[in-house]
Amino acid sequence: MSRTALIENVTAMLQDAGFLVSERCAIRPKSFDVAARRGEELVLLKVLGNVDAFDAATGQEMRRLGEYLSATPMVVGMRTRDEELKPEVVYFRHGVPAIHPDTAFDLFVEDVPPLIYAAPAASTSTSTASCSPRPVRPRTGASGSSPRSWASPAAPSRSTRTG
């Protein structure tokens, strides 16, 4: 899908979710593509096919604008150079959340927040995820399972399991 088509799809999705969406920002340098407001909620979106194209300077500018405007900066994209972005996962690029369009739909239209937050690990072939243990903690004792038994199939190190 072309970047223009992706921006149009994201814009239509935001409008369907009740957002008032700006015209596409065409002034250079541009840190975001569209701004969207719903009530007091303001989102600044950069829409990219490959989220690896999002550089540190743009991330810093989006974070700064977000702070000044009381807005949430966000990147919506399809892939990295190595793999497709997974729905229901929030990635981070230069301190800005990056999500798949399906995750944006879940968040803005269905009002369902993502479940997994992932950040690059030391190696480019691995990534880390942080999940809240609260929903599963009461169930571990009754079933005899433990966080270690749940983590074993993924083969993380002990320091990864314990934080």
Automatic annotation (TrEMBL):
Q: List residues of the MTH-967-like PD-(D/E)XK domain.
A: 4-114
Region of interest called Disordered, as start-end residue ranges on this chain: 123-163
- Segments spanning the bilayer are none
InterPro entries to which the protein is assigned, alphabetical: MTH_967_PDDEXK
Q: Where is the composition biased (Low complexity)?
A: 123-134, 141-163
Q: What is this protein called?
A: MTH-967-like PD-(D/E)XK domain-containing protein
Which species is listed as the source?
Halolamina pelagica
